[in-house]
Amino acid sequence: xxxxxxxxxxxxxxxxxxxxxxxxxxxxxxxxxxxxxxxxxxxxxxxxxxxxxxxxxxxxxxxxxxxxxxxxxxxxxxxxxxxxxxxxxxxxxxxxxxxxxxxxxxxxxxxxxxxxxxxxxxxxxxxxxxxxxxxxxxxxxxxxxxxxxxxxxxxxxxxxxxxxxxxxxxxxxxxxxxxxxxxxxxxxxxxxxxxxxxxxxxxxxxxxxxxxxxxxxxxxxxxxxxxxxxxxxxxxxxxxxxxxxxxxxxxxxxxxxxxxxxxxxxxxxxxxxxxxxxxxxxxxxxxxxxxxxxxxxxxxxxxxxxxxxxxxxxxxxxxxxxxxxxxxxxxxxxxxxxxxxx
Length: 342
Fold this sequence. Notes:
There is one protein chain. 50% of the residues lie in helices and 17% in strands. By secondary structure, it is of the alpha+beta class. Strands 4-3-2-1-7 form a five-stranded antiparallel sheet. A two-stranded antiparallel ribbon has the order 5-6. A hairpin with a 2-residue loop joins strand 3 and strand 4.
């Protein structure tokens, strides 16, 4: 018999949830802070280089933020369905709810939201996460969920991803997540090296590292797609409906960013071959690398040196001297020469 307002005493209430994943929130906050910092110092840059500099900073921060965010995202494969299903074990009561499944590289996230939220004198709003990253035991987390008495739809989906499930989803997605995550970490390291090289007079190597960043992101997508398609899809029946999954936002934004990095890397390689001067101007390195430019300290000082071409430097010109000045110079150089007076 139910107690405490028709609620079974061994069922814990839904825990409060943060509006978004805390890890993603930290990553987004860090990169937004860096972007705001760069925007604050933007007025100190003069000329056309201000726009070029802002474009480089925004593009670089976007690529880095995406690589880190998708690595911790749980929306690589997603699915959602609205259905009527049982709510609790040993209870004939049914509920109408929206059930969502998000599969990431490190685990699954299951949501259960009643329509309406208040049903059976309860607030039906659950958001449960089960992980299989290194150091985490998925089976133990599932056992704890059983002890807590989570709703049937949550336990049903979580059971499909256990190591002993006949569906084989655990090994399938865990293998895909392991290799995809490794490729993304390599892509992040390539992104760091690209930023270092692009700030130095080795632009072509920075372009190569940017190209490598995109290639490793595409390899992560390849590993994830290949591993998740090794076995036929397992039917996920929830009450009167079947839950189907498809590639989520994290997959598509990784694809977009990877293609962007490949495109930028190829453009830089072609520009280095065809228009190296314009490439240096875009990265504000034309003056430092041109051997025909010399530094004139009297024009700009030590703090703001100015450069000018040796071809534009004034050369000594043969200005004719007056006769009197020529005679004086001749007598000083050749005092015994009688032809100086002529």
